[in-house]
Amino acid sequence: MDDRMFRNAMGKFATGVTVITTEVEDQVHGMTANAFMSVSLNPKLVLISIGEKAKMRDRIRQSKTYAVSFLAENQKEVSMQFAGQIKEEREFEFDWLNDMPVIKDALGVLTCNVVGEHEAGDHTLFIGEVTDIRLKEEVEPLVFYQGKYRELTALKESIPN
């Protein structure tokens, strides 16, 4: 199997879209990621996967903290900005939770302290213990499937009013 086939297969798994943020030396840093999962309920642990070439990897190692913002369906441009797909320089105003930068109006945000780090191929897995959570009701998620942003229209149509 070649790399393209593997990427295509992974693209068949629909995911939400997150922005991972951290702060190092009073500078906020963020990156779009869909490699996120919950790990444990007790203690409350989550995992993010960061590529070895991503600057965020060293920043999380330095700060020992990260926040995860689950993007809402109307935040595609936010995802594109933190994925480096928008090349023009833009100011971005963060919200704050537990003294950590998070994405304003995200459908959910959580803050974490790094409690574990594991090398896995060309990525580093950071296990974070959740320290705070904020949720926004009545907001649909931004979804990524087969390399494109999607909406949950089928689900919306099947929910009775």
UniProtKB/TrEMBL annotation:
Domain of life, source organism: Bacteria
Keywords: Oxidoreductase
Enzyme Commission number(s) from the entry: 1.-.-.-
Domain Flavin reductase like residues, every copy: 10-151
Short name of one Pfam family: Flavin_Reduct
Molecular functions per Gene Ontology: oxidoreductase activity
Protein name: Flavin reductase family protein
Organism of origin: Bacillus songklensis
